[in-house]
C-alpha cells in the first residue's frame, strides 16, 4: 500500500449539512409531498448542479420562472433564503478533520460542487474551511464532479500524487471517478464509518 500523505474532502453532506427542504417545508406550510415535488421538478438537483458548475444565479432563476411562472415566489426563495438551507457542520467529520490537521502528517484539500457566490457565504461561516491548504470550487473553475477535469486540476495545481491520496465523498459517482484516476476513494456514509475506513489506510491521527 502506498503511503498516504494527502486527504481530499468533499464538503456538502460530508462536512457541511445543507438541505433545501429547510426552506421549502416552511414555504409549503409543512406539506412535505409538495416540497419534495418542487425540489424534484422545479428547482431540481440538476438545476442546482448547473449553478454549482458556474451558471449565473440570476439567469438560472429567471429561466426557471419562465418555465414555471406560477411558482415564481418559490423559485426566488432558492437564492434569497439559501443561507437557511445550511444546518451547520457535521460535527463528527469536522472532528476527524481537526485531528488530521493537528497531527501535522497530512496535506488537506477539498473538491466541492458549489457555486462561487454561495460558497463565499459558507467560507465566512465555517472556520474549519480555512484548515484546508486549498479548495477546488466547481463554480470558480467551471468544472464539476464527477467529471475528471476537476480532479486532474486539483492533482496538478497542488502537486498531489493520486496513489498517495484519499478522496472522501458521499456521492458514489464522485468517488468512483477518483478511483478511476488512481486516487483512493472512500464512500462517505457517516463519521464513524469514515474513521474506520481511514484506519484501514494505517493513518495516524
Describe the overall structure.
The chain is an alpha/beta fold and 205 residues long. The protein has two domains: 6-17 and 88-199, HAD superfamily/HAD-like (Rossmann fold, 3-Layer(aba) Sandwich), CATH 3.40.50; 19-86. Helix content is 49%, strand content 15%. It has helices at 21-27, 32-41, 45-52, 57-67, 72-80, 91-103, 116-125, 138-141, 148-157, 172-180, 191-199, and strands at residues 6-9, 16-18, 86-89, 107-112, 134-137, 165-169, 184-187. Strand 6, helix 10 and strand 7 (184-187) form a beta-alpha-beta unit. It starts with 5 loop residues before the first strand and ends in a 6-residue tail after the last helix.
Q: If classified by CATH, what would the architecture of the largest domain be?
A: 3-Layer(aba) Sandwich
The gyration radius over C-alpha positions equals 18 Å
Main β-sheet, spatial strand arrangement: 5-4-1-6-7
Order of helices and strands: EEHHHHHEHEHEHHEHEH
Count of individual domains: 2
Beta content comes to 5-15%
The N- and C-terminal alpha carbons lie at a distance of 18 Å
Helical content class? 40-55%
Principal-axes geometry comes out as elongated
Stated plainly, the CATH topology of the largest domain is called Rossmann fold
| Structural class determined from secondary elements | alpha/beta
CATH class of the largest domain: Alpha Beta
The biggest beta sheet reads: 5 strands, parallel
Supply the number of helical segments.
11
**What's the average pLDDT?**
97
Spans of at least 5 consecutive residues with low confidence: none
The overall strand count is 7
CATH superfamily caption of the largest domain: HAD superfamily/HAD-like
Amino acid at each position: 500500500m502506498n503511503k498516504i500523505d494527502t486527504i481530499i474532502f468533499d464538503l456538502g453532506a460530508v462536512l457541511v449539512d445543507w438541505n433545501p427542504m429547510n426552506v421549502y417545508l416552511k414555504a409549503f406550510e409543512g406539506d412535505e409531498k409538495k416540497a419534495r415535488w418542487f425540489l424534484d421538478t422545479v428547482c431540481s438537483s440538476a438545476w442546482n448542479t448547473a449553478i454549482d458548475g458556474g451558471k449565473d444565479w440570476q439567469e438560472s432563476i429567471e429561466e426557471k420562472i419562465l418555465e414555471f411562472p406560477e411558482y415564481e415566489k418559490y423559485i426566488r426563495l432558492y437564492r434569497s433564503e439559501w443561507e437557511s438551507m445550511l444546518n451547520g457542520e457535521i460535527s463528527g467529520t469536522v472532528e476527524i478533520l481537526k485531528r488530521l490537521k493537528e497531527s501535522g502528517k497530512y496535506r488537506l484539500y477539498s473538491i466541492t460542487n458549489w457555486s462561487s457566490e454561495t460558497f463565499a457565504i459558507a467560507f465566512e461561516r465555517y472556520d474549519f474551511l480555512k484548515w484546508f491548504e486549498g479548495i477546488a470550487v466547481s463554480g470558480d473553475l467551471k468544472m464539476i464532479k464527477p467529471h475528471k477535469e476537476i480532479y486532474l486540476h486539483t492533482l496538478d495545481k497542488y502537486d498531489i500524487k493520486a496513489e498517495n491520496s484519499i478522496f472522501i465523498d458521499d456521492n458514489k459517482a464522485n468517488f468512483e471517478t477518483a478511483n478511476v484516476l488512481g486516487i483512493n476513494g472512500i464512500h462517505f456514509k457517516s463519521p464513524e464509518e469514515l474513521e474506520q475506513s481511514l484506519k484501514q489506510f494505517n493513518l495516524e491521527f
